[in-house]
Amino acid sequence: MSGHAAGRDRLSLDEKLELLDGADLWHTAAIARAGVPAIMLSDGPHGLRVQFDEADHLGVEGSEPAVCFPPAVAVASTWNRDVARAVGAALGDAARAAGVAVLLGPGINLKRSPLCGRNFEYYSEDPLLTGELAGALIDGVQSRGVGTAIKHFAANNQETERMSISVEADARTLRELYLAGFERAIRSARPWAVMCSYNRINGVFASEDPWLLTRVLRDEWGFDGLVVSDWGAVYRRDRALAAGLDLEMPSSSGAGAATLRRALDAGEIGLDAVDRGVERVLRLVDRVTDAASVDREPPIGVEAQRRVAHDAALEGAVLLKNERSALPIDPDQGGPVAVIGEFARTPRYQGAGSSQVASIRVDSALDALRGLVGRELRFAPGYGIGATGPDDALVAEAVEAATGADVAVLFLGLPPDDESESFDRSHLRLPDAQLALLERIAGLAARTVVVLSNGGVVEVEPWQRHADAVLEGWLLGEAGGGALAELLVGVHSPSGRLAETIPIALADNPTVGNFPGELGTVRYGERLLVGYRWYDAHRMPVAYPFGHGLGYTDFAYEDLAVHVVPGEDAVVVAVTVRNTGERVGSEVVQVYVSDPDAAVARPDQELTGFAKLELAPGEARRVRIELDERAFAYWHPSVDRWVVEGGAFEVRVGRSSRDIRLASTVSLEGERVSPPLTLDSPAGDWWQHPVLGPRVRELVTGRYARLLADPAEAPLFRPIPLARMIRFPGFSLSEDDARALLAELG
Ligand code: BGC
């Protein structure tokens, strides 16, 4: 303990209770007498949302201007840890320059359903990809001396009734999916704070859950920072403090302190709980003051931040389809280029709610294309953003622009009102007016290209036959317009990959019927089969699979080598990747593991590693990806820990979850976890028991010995509990024998 934390005991009880509560919307309390300064926490994950005056926390009121970086949906699609780290460092610099001590983010809840209104702010349907990229972003922010509050812990996968809904999920589902991303990011990047979510998990509010906030987070994962509530997520302050929630935000206007005082007086909580929370608040203050005293480069300025935002946007866009070499567009040669769609001129580049940034300067793709394209460029807005039906005059203008053009580039997407914090979406369709426009335009130009702007997935199957190429631009931040233009004209080859499956239709999604729940409860009935895990298990076609993304060059995979690390259940994968095309491009090598013969239900395959590399035409490079034990493990609920089951695993290497190029099988030692033996255990467990088995096989004689040993009969008899079999006529092992054997076992 050092600094302010060491001075904890010199504080009065009133001062301690004050420190456990916010001072206002964004600051912790200052205790002037003891020299404890206030520190400022501020949104958000993709750009600063500093509010210096008293204001709301839901993005309704404005905030200070700041660079808007690509939101998590786009950062995730880069599959590039370096990009995430660079965005984090730039965010950290922006925060430092504004005097913000802790950034409220990143948000890393899993994309359980594509309908979640906040998916733009989350990374992926896969916990490994989520944890890796969020970890890199946290690392980046904290490398600049600013803390992060990773959120929303945990299982906050929808906005509907987010402040009360109870998530019903079993231990494997929580551990292997919904907690796994947090665990990975927390263990690797050590965020200074964790923000607990509003919802309940199996009936218990996250803010009041000692299992979540103390046992899992601190005792198992070794988290040593502060737990802060989401804004307004504290229900019972006394229970929350006892569970491990240290700081209530925003200020409860004294209500929290009054509850704690009552609980202390009644002996329901002890002073030790107060001291523990206070120590963690003070330790955060210490971290902040220590970081401020370190000599660092001055924060990078706004223009440098915008360059980081631009570079991230370049890698975040995903080329879904590119037929007839529709892309890239030659900037100088050929007939007119028609740019159609209001989103080309008025970009949709970020989501809404607490992460909404008052951007510095928004680049439009239209302006950027005008700067890059040397041939005739026509523009027609085609539709009004938010329009409910087609506008005949706008459509006629767009038809005129497209007619006879060499290429028509149509910008389509979701209006801002369609997706936000606080509510979920009800469908995955693009607006009817935009689809009607696409149908009208299709075929008028020699080639038709669609560019999408949307934070959550949209269905593409109903309309993509009208487009030769589709570039999924997600929401790319304020510099995204320039990045899109550069990709369209081939200054760079697209290198984004899908961090979530695009299903053919919403109806295919595993959460149908269980989203957003009913009567206060949402049952995660699909268990482990979220996203590609579901589509794979059901052998379902999808519009575009997890991990998919094209570029302007091709890659070949050669010489897969997979080695087990001696003495460990870990594996090293090596593969050579060759750029077989004529342009520079980046490939994302993806490693999936399959456990074909598991004792428990496991997804067909799971992402266990990835690496992104840029290759010149003809260049080949060896890529090495290490898979630790966790890549092969499942959560065993009875022994309450991760278990690698011994046996064969298939290691698959490819370009996407559905484009596996090479595979190899490894055999791991693992372990065999047997539940404790009791009289009610199946007779087969007794028969085959590693210690007692030989004795049991001596004591069981005659007919039953044959039935338990014979491969044809054993499947019928081995499942019968021993206690039942003991009563069968002629069974030679008695209950006393069994009890004696158990006693021998201890
Ligand atoms: C959101 C958080 C945000 C906080 C402060 C809450 O409503 O869920 O993500 O950090 O407000 O704005």
Q: What do these coordinates show?
A:
- This protein is an alpha/beta fold and 746 residues long.
- Strand 23 (647-656) and strand 24 (659-668) form a beta hairpin.
- It has a 6-stranded mixed beta sheet with strand order 9-14-13-12-10-11, sandwiched between helices. A 5-stranded parallel beta sheet has the order 1-2-3-5-8.
- 54% of the residues are buried.
- It has 4 domains: 12-293, TIM Barrel (Alpha-Beta Barrel), CATH 3.20.20; 312-537, Rossmann fold; 555-668, Immunoglobulin-like (Sandwich); 683-745, no CATH class.
- The longest helix has 23 residues, at 271-293.
- It is built from 24 helices and 24 strands.
- Beta-D-glucopyranose binds next to strand 3.
Write a brief caption for the model.
This protein is α/β, with parallel strands linked by helices and 746 residues long. Helices cover 30% and strands 18% of the residues. It contains 24 helices and 24 strands.
Give keywords:
746 residues, alpha/beta, TIM Barrel, Rossmann fold, Immunoglobulin-like, 4 domains, six-stranded mixed β-sheet, five-stranded parallel β-sheet, 24 helices, binds beta-D-glucopyranose
